[in-house]
Amino acid sequence: MTARQRRPTVNEREFIERALQSNLRADGRGPFDFRELKIVLCRENGTAEVELGETRVMGCVTAQLVQPYKDRPNEGTLAIFAEFTPMADPAYDPGRPGEEAIELGRVIDRGLRASRAVDLESLCVVAGKVVWSIRVDLHVLDNGGNLIDAANIAALAALSTFQRPECTVGGDDGQPVTLHDPEVRDPVPLTIHLSIAVTFAYSGGGNIMVADPTCEEEAALGGRMTVTLDSSGDVCSIQKADGDGLIPSFVTKCLRIASIKAADITSEFMQQVGWVSRSRLGFQRLYDRTWFLWL
Q1: DSSP of 103-128, one letter per residue?
Q2: What is the pLDDT along the chain (295 residues), one digit of tens a residue?
Q3: C-alpha span between 150 and 277 (Å, rounded)
Q4: Residue 69: burial class (beta carbons within 10 Å; 0-12, 13-18, 19+)
Q5: Are 142 and 88 in contact, with CB atoms under 8 Å apart?
Q6: Three-state DSSP class for residue 154
Q7: Which of 85, 208, 215, 220 is most open to solvent, judged by the fewest CB atoms within 10 Å of its CB?
Q8: What is the Cα gyration radius of the chain?
Q9: Burial, 73: exposed, middle or buried (Cβ in 10 Å; 0-12, 13-18, 19+)?
Q10: Among 164, 152, 128, which Cα is nearest to 226's?
Q11: Residue of 191, 225, 48 lying closest to 116 (CA atoms)
């Protein structure tokens, strides 16, 4: 995502590639080690900030009542939008979202939809008439590389802490749906199932590969692949951007590593976010898999 914007010099590229061939990285990590993950739950409903090393992304969730799609009358909707600003990286221009922002939003959206991270049927109020529309805005505050994984966690953290207003069908005022103030009726949390994205940067068709790449590594290696796993540990989506073609053995290796890393990230997520979301089923399934992988 930043490889097209930041063009390293020949010396920088050769230095990074030679170091990675010896399993060395500038920040001292191993090839498949992730940077420190920190999740901050903001006081605002459905807002969370994620720090992954020097990368910072904020997720904000909002909801409104809308008419459902005709082909899905019993389901609500979920939309993901990403925003880049010059504050995050001088390479980004202010104004309308660029290609990188649109790509980031689509990758996160595809992973969440494929894994059914949000139970859309639970967002139905009146079948065929009124459903909840959930919108997640991802604000990139600092681009230190691997925006996809950081944005994925930010979206999940924001969704896990979001609570929509309680509503009832009909009312004395003749409205089809009545929204209740949080002081009158407790708001309702969303039903969430974790889906974790794990991103690799590579070059030479997979001869060199690292997880959780920094900006410099993304620019030097050029290729990127993201694997998203659902709460059962099943692969829901794979997205490849730039780089050379990949052989099946490389993809298999990435899937194996991503499965283990997703469990580690889930453990960190549960420790920092806890059970705030009350999405019991999704957390429990992935917790069971985490314990199995640790054995």
Answers
A1: HHHHHHHHHHHHTT-B-GGGGEEETT
A2: 443 456 677 778 888 888 888 888 888 899 999 999 999 998 889 999 999 999 999 999 999 999 999 999 999 999 999 988 777 776 666 666 678 888 999 999 999 999 999 999 999 999 989 999 999 999 999 999 999 999 999 999 999 999 999 988 876 555 678 888 888 888 999 988 999 999 999 987 668 899 999 988 988 888 899 999 987 888 999 998 876 777 888 899 999 999 999 999 998 998 888 644 443 333 333 333 332 222 2
A3: 19
A4: exposed
A5: yes
A6: helix
A7: 85
A8: 20
A9: middle
A10: 152
A11: 191
Which has the closest alpha carbon to 104: 59, 169, 69, 162? 59
| Separation CA 181–CA 170 (nearest Å) | 16
The single-letter DSSP state of residue 190 is -
Six-digit token string for 295: 């054995």
Is residue 56 within 8 Å of 50, Cβ to Cβ?
A: yes
What sections of the chain are H helices per DSSP?
Answer: 10-21, 99-114, 147-161, 215-221, 248-273, 280-294
Alpha-carbon span 118 to 286, nearest angstrom: 15
Do the beta carbons of residue 134 and residue 76 sit within 8 Å? yes
How many other CB atoms are there within 10 angstroms of residue 173's CB atom? 6
List, as one string, the DSSP characters of 37-81: EEEEE-SSTTEEEEEETTEEEEEEEEEEEEPPPTT-TT--EEEEE
- Residue 94 per-residue DSSP state: S
Tokens matching residue 20: 């990675």
265 burial class (0-12, 13-18, 19+ CB within 10 angstroms)? buried
231 in Cβ contact with 168 (< 8 Å): no
